[in-house]
Amino acid sequence: MVRLLERLTRLLLLALAVGSSAGCSIFMAATDAPAVDYDAVEIGMPREAVLERLGYPDKSFLIGSGGRLDQFEFESGRGQRALRAVAWAMADAFTLGAAELLGTPVESELRAEVLKSDAVFGADGRLRALEIRKDDGEPIVAVGDTSYLKRVQLAAAGFTPPEPASPPPPPGARPVAPEPPPP
User: Fold this and answer.
1) What number of helices (H) and strands (E) belong to the chain?
2) What is the mean pLDDT of residues 140-168?
3) Which pTM value belongs to this model?
4) Secondary structure (DSSP) of 61-117
């Protein structure tokens, strides 16, 4: 009798654990952010076409050449949300919810990641440079004139590069007094 109660208790605990997590992987898959098609962004694209793919920028700066620096932050999912949700629903149905023990951790790993992007557009409104990076700063995509992009990013952040240092005088050179201004 005691063994039967132990078995029933274990079965009840397992049923509660599986039942309480039933549907989590389905919900997580169905509500994941859509995949952003940033590979389709090309140098020379009009700004409107870039905004269709990346969304509207969080910050936008006018730059001295008549161009613009747009800064984005967006979530990019893994895609195929409906297919993943249906697959987890079928797995849950066939395993009476036990698939959630695998499904929830898998979907947690597949969740959308936050990406940041900077795009520089010329005065003609066409893309000159683009950098997309993970939230931790690791670059994913960098196309176009990235050295120009870095200078624009620094200027937008308020950083002015220092003037280049004058070369040291040659050995044995004497300092020359500046000429007095004319009267």
Assistant:
1) 6, 5
2) 68
3) 0.61
4) EE-TTS-EEEEEEEEE--S-HHHHHHHHHHHHHHHTTTTHHHHHHHHHHHS-EEEEE
